[in-house]
Amino acid sequence: KTSLRLEAAMVTAARQVAMIASIILCASIIIGVLSITGLGVKITSLILSVSGGYLWPSLFLTALACLVLGMEVPTTAAYVICVSVAGPALTQLGLEPLQAHLFVFWFALLSTITPPVCGAVFIAAGMINENWLKVAVTAMALGIGLYIIPLGMIANPDLIALSDAPIAALLAFAQIGLGLGCMSYGLIAAGPAVKKAALIGGGLVIIFIRLALG
Questions:
Q1: Which of 120, 128, 115, 124 is nearest to 74 (CA)?
Q2: CA 2 to chain centre
Q3: DSSP structure string for 75-101
Q4: What is the pLDDT of residues 122-180, one digit of tens each?
Q5: How far apart are CA 124 and CA 84, in angstroms?
Q6: CA distance 112 to 148
């Protein structure tokens, strides 16, 4: 029995290593193409020029670029491709490397529920025989926090400084959690449109109040 378990473990490990190696190889090929053709530098320059050198417009454009570049690409490849293209634009605008990498990683993975590709949505829609666009809208509403958290992380840098400032990190966590709770309730719960809009707006104010106060 021990030998059979060892054999099964070795075969499983070999399959997983082969899959990861193929993903990294494909990502390396794409990165090489971006580097040789200069497309990566052009995308970075385009983000900086269109945004006028301002951080938040650059974040918006970077998020769009990551959603496109991460379409139906495995996690490792999506991160490597997107950070090689969009990461430099954010670091040039003054973000810490950890902030830039987390932001890019987060939005690169959100293509799974964001149209037009949204592979996870198509699979779910096929399982329940429902219109894929309706499922996509529902998925995005349920996952609204996934779109807000990386922005909240930029507006509240203490959120990822748990080792250096644990109290401030916990306060930032509670602040963003409260804001996301208000937004989620406003989007999902039934009620008057005015109440829903007030909850969504209030949630945004709670999350980004530090940014508004300067």
A1: 120
A2: 42
A3: HHHHHHHHHHHHHHHHHHTT--HHHHH
A4: 778 877 778 888 888 888 888 888 888 888 888 888 888 877 888 988 988 898 889 98
A5: 31
A6: 16
68 φ/ψ angles, rounded to the nearest 5 degrees:
-75, -45
Instruction: Assess contact for 156 and 148: CB atoms under 8 A.
Output: no
Give the 3-state secondary structure of residue 2. helix
Amino acid residing at 86 = A
Q: Where are the domains of the chain?
A: 1-112, 143-214
Q: Which residues contact 161 (CB under 8 A, 6 or more apart)?
A: 168, 169
State the residue for tokens 């602040």. 175
Taking the model in full, what pTM does it have?
0.70
Quick one: residue 190, left, alpha or beta (phi over 0 = left, psi -120 to 50 = alpha)? beta
Name the amino acid, one letter, at 140: M
* Burial of 87 per CB tally in 10 Å (0-12, 13-18, 19+): buried
- 50-64 tens-digit pLDDT: 777 788 888 888 888
The closest alpha carbon to 109, from 136, 138, 60, 71, belongs to 71
C-beta separation of 79 from 104 below 8 A: yes
* 198/205 Cα distance (integer angstroms): 10
Q: Which amino acid is at 148?
A: I
- Residue ranges in 143-192 assigned as alpha helix (H): 144-155, 166-188
